[in-house]
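User: Teach me something about this protein's shape.
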Amino acid sequence: MLRALRAVAKVELPPLRAVDRRLARAANVHDFRRIAKRRLPGGVFDYIDGGAEDELTLRASTEAYRRTEFRPRVLRGVATGDASTTLLGARLPLPLVLAPTGFTRIAHPAGELAVARAAGRAGLPYALSTLSTRSIEEVAAVATGPLWFQVYVWRDRDLVRSMIERAAAAGYAVLCLTVDSVVLGRRERDVRRGFTLPPRIGPGTLIDGILHPGWTWEFVRAEPIEFANLRAAAGEGGAISLAQFVHDQYDTGLSWHDVEWLRSVWDGPIVIKGIQTVEDAKIAVAEGVEGIVLSNHGGRQLDTAPVTLELLRQVRDTLGDGPVLIADGGVRRGSDIVKAVALGADAAMAGRAYLYGLGACGERGVDRVLELFAEDVARTMGLLGCATLADLTPDLVRVV
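Assistant: First, the predicted structure itself:
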């Protein structure tokens, strides 16, 4: 009996390191989210996970992918698959851009450095946020993949110009203008918890920290979190002064004329992130931008805003094959990337997905999320009967 059992069963001891055990339990992005929720303080997790108001757009963005069915073709002689593409001059192994996310070190002390290193290993572009917690130069020093710089056109144009010049000097290839944040959305999870950036220390914060000792130990040992690109901008006063400075900088008068101004201070490709209608997509093309990111800001700005996946085909049909079109919001699996490409996107953009990996397992968690995406894309294309991204056409999906 024992001999027969040994022949068919292998005894495997659980990993000794906690991060290895967490990685072993994560079969997909949803698992990383579950692990991050358990490991991070409630306020931190809700900042990453939450959306605006009733979070209808947040939920609808992911549900749209779930509702979209594949129509696989069989016996098509696909021996090997190739998901590679060229996006704004860079050759990529799969059509994915890592979205800009602010205050990333709140998920893990390595923050943007971990994400940039993981993106480089995967050969994917990483868009660094203006409100990053590692500076333009610090990220460029560790990155081995394409870098984009996400920018807001703030009231202080000299400050914006300075950051753009720093990004150009550091080798960033694409400028990504976010246009859906001239007024900040109301994120009611943060309101209920009294959560602010930077976090303010109170009884609830202390209790949350005690209940999540792993995150707290890493947090207290690391250097203070700050908006690293703005260290000299707000004078003395530390992170709280910087937070108020950032709030005061948002320009509600932002217009298409500011895109012209950006062109005068940046020589490379410009991508506009936050387009949510066909009409604005047409204007963006007329303004000569090289790329459009259809995005509702992850459901964090205007609740009941359009769902990207549902808008995608209409925009592509209207614009034709000209501009680069990127679908942002709701991507949790590689099959979601395939659906977006089939409906007309040149690439997808994902932010929360890698933040879940970062919060759950640090840099190795980001690595694994990107590996899962690549594996999912290859498997899905094979099951659809597609050898290349060019084979991904609208007839392969059905939006229900």
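Now, about its shape. The chain has 17 helices and twelve strands. The mean pLDDT is 91. If you'd like, I can walk through any region in more detail.
User: That's plenty for now, thanks!
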